[in-house]
TrEMBL record:
Assigned protein family: Belongs to the NAD-dependent glycerol-3-phosphate dehydrogenase family.
Known catalytic reactions: sn-glycerol 3-phosphate + NAD(+) = dihydroxyacetone phosphate + NADH + H(+); sn-glycerol 3-phosphate + NADP(+) = dihydroxyacetone phosphate + NADPH + H(+)
Organism per entry: Methanobrevibacter thaueri
Binding-site residues for substrate, renumbered to this chain: 106, 252-253
Key word Cytoplasm present: yes
Protein name per Swiss-Prot or TrEMBL: Glycerol-3-phosphate dehydrogenase [NAD(P)+]
Subcellular location, record wording: Cytoplasm
GO biological process, one term: glycerol-3-phosphate biosynthetic process
């Protein structure tokens, strides 16, 4: 049993992870940026902005003072990838040398093209544990069955994070393939968008799942070329998460793809919804180009979302490459 585990970012994933780990620790200290979220959780046990109908467990307490995390044994970072650098820079001077950082963000830094564990290493000098899997937050927050892959170069960190996450309902697969687990989460968002486009444009199901087959094979190639292991794609972070986000409308990235497939334009920024995959498309396209990698799924998604090419025309080109 742990005593003091923290979670930074009180959105969908932060609330869901808190509900998962609270079984294995005396207290979860959940950091929220906004005071009203802290008040809502501490006074009512509801995070009303994200899950107004779910009463959180009693040992989840919120704070908006990062300094209160100074005694944390483990900190889960449940933030958009765009703010991981800024937040870990602040945390560096607060946390103890033994504190373990766990990243759950499924993104890549836009300009540097660095993975989140690389960003965290640069800012704190620590080897982060990375977590990725079929983790629809709206399900996890209800403490239903779920799973995740975790990876870290530091075996002691990996074991501790496995202990805090493992419950009768939450399965953990531990690995040493940090690059593979991280890239699975990153690529999966782009795949979810690509499958959403197919669904939105109402391509027939045989066609959609034929290209999905190609996409799955390409994911293995990409992971290997980026330095990860092909087999990691068979794990929860790969197959599990790719299927989940590609076929369910609850995935925000999938929904974004459906809208583009239907040629419906939304103001993504104004919506306030986090679409991690949108920036990733541009980054992955550049990474493929820089490494002489051909990836039909990335090209298709880039053509529709970034170049604004008609989805039917883009699909025909995708089909040609099968
Ligand atoms: N939702 C899901 O099912 C899953 C999400 N993930 C990944 O987790 C990451 C977070 O996603 P998710 O929780 O869904 O996103 P949300 O938009 O639901 O939550 C993000 C949270 O981060 C907070 N935040 C933003 N900027 C800062 C900052 N500078 N300092 C402190 N807090 C900040 C937001 O605060 P505020 O409320 O004030 O805006 C919000 O509470 C993403 O990378 C996503 O891919 C992974 C698995 C599942
Ligand atoms: O990563 C997720 C589930 O595992 C959530 O996906 P979205 O960010 O597309 O909603």
């Amino acid at each position: 049993m742990f005593s003091n585990i923290s979670v930074v970012g009180a959105g969908a994933m932060g609330t869901a992870i808190s509900q998962t780990i609270c079984e294995n620790t005396k207290q979860v200290l959940l950091y929220a940026k906004r005071a009203e979220v802290v008040n809502s959780i501490n006074k009512t046990h509801f995070n009303k902005d994200y899950f107004p109908n779910i009463r959180l467990e009693d040992n989840i307490i919120a704070t908006n003072d990062l300094n209160e995390l100074k005694n944390a044994e483990i900190i889960f970072l449940t933030l958009p990838s765009s703010v991981i650098r800024e937040v870990t820079r602040k945390l560096k001077d607060i946390i103890s040398s033994d504190c373990i950082l766990v990243n759950t963000a499924k993104g890549i830094e836009k300009n540097s093209k660095k993975r989140m564990s690389e960003v965290i290493q640069e800012e704190t000098g620590k080897s982060a544990v990375v977590l990725s899997g079929p983790n629809i937050a709206a399900e996890m927050v209800e403490r239903t069955f779920s799973s995740a892959s975790i990876a870290c170069e530091n075996k002691e960190y990996l074991d501790k994070v496995e202990q805090v996450l493992s419950t009768p309902k939450f399965k953990v697969s531990a690995s040493n393939d940090v690059i593979g687990v991280e890239y699975c989460g990153v690529i999966k968002n782009v795949i979810a968008i690509s499958q959403g486009i197919c669904e939105g444009m109402k391509i027939n199901d045989n066609a959609r799942f034929s290209v999905f087959t190609k996409t799955f094979a390409e994911t293995k190639d990409l992971i290997e070329k980026f330095g990860g292991k092909r087999d990691t794609v068979d794990d929860y972070c790969g197959f599990g998460d790719i299927i989940t986000a590609s076929t369910l409308n609850v995935s925000r990235n999938h929904t974004l793809g459906v809208l583009y497939g239907q040629k419906i334009v939304i103001d993504e920024k104004a919506s306030g919804v986090l679409f991690e995959g949108k920036n990733t498309i541009i980054t992955l396209k550049e990474l493929c180009k820089n490494n002489n990698i051909d990836c039909a799924t990335v090209d298709f998604t880039y053509d529709v979302i970034i170049n604004g090419i008609n989805p039917k025309r883009a699909f025909e080109e995708f089909w040609e490459k099968l």
